[in-house]
Protein 1
Amino acid sequence: DAGVTQSPTHLIKTRGQHVTLRCSPISGHKSVSWYQQVLGQGPQFIFQYYEKEERGRGNFPDRFSARQFPNYSSELNVNALLLGDSALYLCASGQANYGYTFGSGTRLTVV
Amino acid sequence: ILNVEQSPQSLHVQEGDSTNFTCSFPSSNFYALHWYRWETAKSPEALFVMTLNGDEKKKGRISATLNTKEGYSYLYIKGSQPEDSATYLCAFMVNNAGNMLTFGGGTRLMVKP
């Protein structure tokens, strides 16, 4: 059974561009969460979606948006990229009571 | 803003040593405390989810305790092995925050053979 899959694995963008990151949860999992991890820090919560509805939003600007599709996969969109958006973006699925399963992440570099 | 602190930031031990790390979190509105192990070039892997004050969990040589009243959790590794080398993250969840995890900065463990 495939785990949480994320694409692409690496991405280089220029300041001002936008980016779309994709995540497929474990089969049967209806929730997807997105986290941003900057080197040397712990992951920081961006969004959680459950059954296509936003259930939680972290302290990120409106340039960050996300959505969840009927098959429970999800996209994270970031507009007007800044150098500070360079990070590892992690997707997780599952239930809080059992611990989340994370993907391997997308490494975004903004130049 | 929730503050989750982990100490130490990094730790070098010899194979066979036992070690422990600390996670400190706010003691109010507690819902759950997660521990994850994150090996280089892999995904974070859930170790424990702890919800009750006084909880003790164990998985092989790794165990964890929880004190919600004073806001801390300890992770213990008995007889460290090189394959235990990883970053250990704790994450705190409050009871009204939509399943959001607030992570600490992690403890990076390196076990020398």
Note: The mean pLDDT of chain A is 95.
Protein 2
Amino acid sequence: NAGVTQTPKFRILKIGQSMTLQCTQDMNHNYMYWYRQDPGMGLKLIYYSVGAGITDKGEVPNGYNVSRSTTEDFPLRLELAAPSQTSVYFCASSYQGGHGYTFGSGTRLTVV
Amino acid sequence: QQQVKQSPQSLIVQKGGISIINCAYENTAFDYFPWYQQFPGKGPALLIAIRPDVSEKKEGRFTISFNKSAKQFSLHIMDSQPGDSATYFCAASSGGGADGLTFGKGTHLIIQP
């Protein structure tokens, strides 16, 4: 039982490049979330999804896009990477909204 | 605008002591208050959670105290151990939390042996 799997674990991007952060869960959770974690700033919600085909913006969505074509996968797309997007990105899923998140192990992204 | 304020930012406690982390919130619609524990290089993990209809919840050495009128809640770690050294986040959500959790900024806890 893998839980929430995020790939890659580390990535260095050049300014203006694009990439997709992958997130897959095998718990049949409907709710999935993307957060970014910056030192001393806690976790801020980027996007979330309450089920396949449904996505919505969180607190800090600018510069990101998501899709949810299946229950299992919730990829996060960065277009035109900027230094401000240097962060650790966490994907989470839950069976009941904000209750009982299972987090992935994170993707550490550096934009140079 | 930060809706959940957490303090202190860092905390050093001697082994066997009590660690206390505090959070305050502004949104009276919040109805679920979890605490997450994060070790370096790992994702946060749910530690314990409380709803506002109770004033205290205890699980092993971990206790949440909740004061609805003051809009404050706190995490107490009794008999703190070096293995408890981690970053702790309080959080809050409303209406089932489908639109996500609002997190505090975190407390870096060090338990000295």
Note: Chain A has a mean pLDDT of 95.
Protein 3
Amino acid sequence: QSALTQPASVSGSPGQSITISCAGTSDDVGGYQYVSWYQQHPGKAPQLMIYDVSNRPSGVSNRFSGSKSGNTASLTISGLQADDEADYYCTSYASSNTWVFGGGTKLTVL
Amino acid sequence: EVQLLESGGGLVQPGGSLRLSCAASGVTFSSYAMSWVRQAPGKGLEWVSGTIGSGGVTYYADSVKGRFTISRDNSKNTLYLQMNSLRAEDTAVYYCAKAEHYYDFWGGVYWGQGTLVAVSS
């Protein structure tokens, strides 16, 4: 039950675009279309931003998009805004009947 | 509106037990799988356990297998996590999360606000 691999931090200026990667294996990210991304502000519960690799829940801005290539998933945020500053976690269903998370990426809006 | 409210957290000594509850409202509870996810202070999210809509099938992370038991009472719209043989490394905020399907316990839009479990002597 290894965690997925994310960069510890990324940063960008308002209006710019950033991409957060999430590396897994063929037993999780690469094997299923069940990658999700969560945003978490300090002291708050996680909020779902992307599900099933590239789908946005109702109410989530279209500035957030997801994709996958092989064993690596990506979250792209375009038109960065101050409120996007948060921790972001990728997750995936895994073949061992588990739900695995990445270590989290801290996004700083400069 | 779907709401999930966790309770039962607190301070417990190593080796002790605690039972967490997650009361759901605004949803046909028995139609959805549920999970528990935890977050140690200053750390990332870690899935703990999941169960399908009926509660008849359960899943666990290796780190808690044999010590924790997930269950649900669909007549009370409540999810539980019985935690035994607690260790210092179990200290975390515990969230319940509602999945989007009956069988698939992962993912989901709705999470509770969490309950803090602190294991310390």
Note: Chain A has a mean pLDDT of 96.
